[in-house]
Amino acid sequence: QVHLVESGGGLVQAGGSLRLSCAASVRTLSSYGMGWFRQAPGKEREFVAALSRSGSNTKYAESVKGRFTISRDNAKNTVFLQMNSLKTEDTAVYYCAADFLGSGTSSGSSYEYWGQGTQVTVSS
Q: What average pLDDT score do residues 24-48 get?
């Protein structure tokens, strides 16, 4: 069983930055494609960013391209989401997800493991 724990969320003003972390209780994080998703109140969960097992390939939602960066430290079993130039519409609960032997896909259904989420609130 894989446990994912997100941290780093909080309240920030528009234009500010936050760095989310996802700590994974796995032996080898490099066996997992990783993704970040978010869900705003009253909305469907949506893809934010994904990262291949090696970290060499990334995918981003159009709405966050150029502002968010996904990265991983396999030695520390941790995945990060650096969020810059935050907008009020980025307000959501952010979830980390892991896909065993996955390539890092934007499809939520591909991920077997999910964290509990961390709240990000961006004020105007």
A: 95
